[in-house]
Write a structure and sequence with these properties.
This protein has 103 residues and is an alpha+beta fold. Helices cover 20% and strands 31% of the residues.
Length: 103
């Protein structure tokens, strides 16, 4: 049992090695993050209102985004120019436009 302070992250860390040891078929797949420049991630920073969640705060933190909703912080890593994933295996989120700019 975990508490609400990122308890799903801890539960996932415990579940992954068990799933590998017992060869569970629904083991979360490993993902690889791409590198997006921090200034590109900062373009998404701000406060938003999400229909099902309510207020959402997004900030850039090095190579990823930190999204705060309902008092919980979650790290989201870029999978592509428009898609981000978290380490708990939830559904990915996406932006409406690519984050990379051509130099």
């Amino acid at each position: 049992m975990t508490n609400a302070d990122n308890g799903s992250r801890l539960a996932n860390e415990i579940r992954l090695p068990i799933a590998a040891a017992y060869r569970w078929p629904d083991k979360p797949r490993e993902r690889e993050a791409i590198q997006l420049p921090t200034p590109e991630l900062e373009k998404l920073a701000g406060d938003y209102e999400a229909p099902l969640i309510g207020k959402v705060h997004i900030q850039a933190s090095g190579d990823h985004l930190v999204i705060t909703a309902r008092g919980d912080d979650m790290d989201w890593y870029p999978a592509s120019d428009t898609s981000f994933f978290n380490l708990t295996g939830g559904l990915p989120i996406s932006t409406s436009a690519p984050m990379r700019t051509e130099m």
